[in-house]
Backbone:
């Protein structure tokens, strides 16, 4: 019976992650398109879109230097399904399903209770937070699977065979090569694990040291790239609060008002302002609005109408934390430690709370909620009434979320997913041979990747005609290839012969004839396509 319930949960998890995967979210956004095309390029040529052979530490892409993990995971998917939205998103959905199974295994190991393990897996299977990232091509979701697998295998090392440690280290290593946020999470969770199982670590010190050496050797190329190259530091410098000058300016203002007294330099030291800023960002991770009512402010990362967790989860989480300590649960500090260290890395960024960068906090909430619910059930006198009430409230929460996710969110926020690019490419494709040039506006950003993706452009052919520039900040811009020119302004671009224009609203030159208007799902115009002869 228990196995049947687990199978049913996995079927639910699979349906929720695979149903209409190519249609909701409503289109591929830039990074998804980049991941998909680079995987296609690796499949066809063993090189990335810029011609680099089998990159190990990063894919240059737009100049954001993506970790390689998700791209390589997508290669088999594209081989099987072709270069499609489904194939690009399938690895995230697939590993999202596996994370549900992994949550069951981890919960069973930590709590030694089948009901808690089943509930933890079920809670993750219907989690808005986890569903959001399992249904898009998010590197973070793949990174979450491997870091959670690393934690599970470390627990196996500590409680059964010592040789699980090597596989745990490998899992954490893959996580580091998959998502940049894992680089600020893995060291902290390893510290939590080492402290939790310090006796086992000391007992197997030689194996631990050997594993650490192997780990560091394999991590070295990524570490060098991330810390010793301008490209590697680019993303961190772009998002970190520690490059923000406002705390320093505030420190100077206060010291100036105090006539630069020696004591003012102490109490208004800029480091205190940065610490205060960091703490504000850290505690943003537990903001009730973020967790329970509205979620991440970015419409790509949350549907906006519900939190990252359900309202009912609040009761279970509070109960779970209480019972973890009142019952002195054996692994309480591992679970709470995992919860506490998860925001440490994301708190260094300007945008907080950030559901994507903090996804590795999952499935701690689900583990705690499951334990809390089981303990509450044991305490409640009217058990049937309790079960009925919980089922009704949770069902209402869940079906409201599904309704908003599938019926309203795609319409409200299709623009956030760059809806319209696919339709533009499909409009241009049959007309391409009739024109000498195709000019595409860059107003909506990075159009070239969509023309490569939806034309299934042969990577070798593309590189022969591509016009690519890298600026002083190492951002990469594709100016054009073949007949395509990607431009900031049509007026400043001279062409001869027959030209097709792909423009944003009111951008078509006066001398063109409009032949097509492309709207997003809310009815707003995204592109206008026109032609002209000059």
Residues:
């Amino acid at each position: 019976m228990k196995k049947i319930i687990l199978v049913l949960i996995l079927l639910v998890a699979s349906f929720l992650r695979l149903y209409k995967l190519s249609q909701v979210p409503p289109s591929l956004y830039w990074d998804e398109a980049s991941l998909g095309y680079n995987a296609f390029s690796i499949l066809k040529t063993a090189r990335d879109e810029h011609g680099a052979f089998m990159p190990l530490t990063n894919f240059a892409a737009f100049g954001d230097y993506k970790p390689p993990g998700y791209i390589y995971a997508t290669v088999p998917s594209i081989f099987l399904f072709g270069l499609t939205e489904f194939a690009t998103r399938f690895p995230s959905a697939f590993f999202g399903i596996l994370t549900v199974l992994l949550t069951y295994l981890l919960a069973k190991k930590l709590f030694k209770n089948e009901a808690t393990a089943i509930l933890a897996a079920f809670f993750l299977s219907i989690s808005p937070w986890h569903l959001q990232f399992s249904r898009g091509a998010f590197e973070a979701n793949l990174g979450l699977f491997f870091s959670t697998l690393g934690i599970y295998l470390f627990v196996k090392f500590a409680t059964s065979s010592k040789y699980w440690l090597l596989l745990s280290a490998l899992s954490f290593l893959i996580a580091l090569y998959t998502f940049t946020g894992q680089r600020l999470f893995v060291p902290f969770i390893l510290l939590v694990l080492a402290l939790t199982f310090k006796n086992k670590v000391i007992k197997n010190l030689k194996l631990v040291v050997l594993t650490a050496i192997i780990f560091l050797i394999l991590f070295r190329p990524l570490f060098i790239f991330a810390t010793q190259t301008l490209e590697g530091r680019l993303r961190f410098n772009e998002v970190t609060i520690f490059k923000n000058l406002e705390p320093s300016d505030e420190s100077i203002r206060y010291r100036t008002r105090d006539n630069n007294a020696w004591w003012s330099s102490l109490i208004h030291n800029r480091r205190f302002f940065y610490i205060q800023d960091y703490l504000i960002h850290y505690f943003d991770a537990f903001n009730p609005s973020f967790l329970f009512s509205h979620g991440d402010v970015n419409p790509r990362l949350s549907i906006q109408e519900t939190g990252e967790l359900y309202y009912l989860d609040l009761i279970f989480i509070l109960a779970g934390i209480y019972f973890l300590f009142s019952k002195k649960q054996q692994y309480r500090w591992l679970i709470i430690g995992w919860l506490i260290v998860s925001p440490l890395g994301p708190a260094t960024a300007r945008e907080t709370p950030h559901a994507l960068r903090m996804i590795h906090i999952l499935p701690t909430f689900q583990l705690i909620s499951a334990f809390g619910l089981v303990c509450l059930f044991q305490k409640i006198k009217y058990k049937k009434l309790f079960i009925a009430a919980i089922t009704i409230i949770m069902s209402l929460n869940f079906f409201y979320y599904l309704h908003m996710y599938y019926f309203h969110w795609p319409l409200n926020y299709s623009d956030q997913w760059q809806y319209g690019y696919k339709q533009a490419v499909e409009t241009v494709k049959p007309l391409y041979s009739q024109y000498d040039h195709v000019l595409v506006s860059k107003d909506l950003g990075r159009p070239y990747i969509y023309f490569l993706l939806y034309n299934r452009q042969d990577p070798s052919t593309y590189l022969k005609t591509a016009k690519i520039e890298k600026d002083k900040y190492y951002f990469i811009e594709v100016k054009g290839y073949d007949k395509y020119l990607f431009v900031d302004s049509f007026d400043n671009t001279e062409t001869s012969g027959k030209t097709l224009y792909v423009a944003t609203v009111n951008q078509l030159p006066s001398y063109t004839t409009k032949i097509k208007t492309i709207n997003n799902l809310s009815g707003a115009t995204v592109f206008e396509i026109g032609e002209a002869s000059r």
Q: What stands out?
A: The mean pLDDT is 92. The longest strand covers residues 525-533. DSSP finds 23 helices and seven strands in the chain.
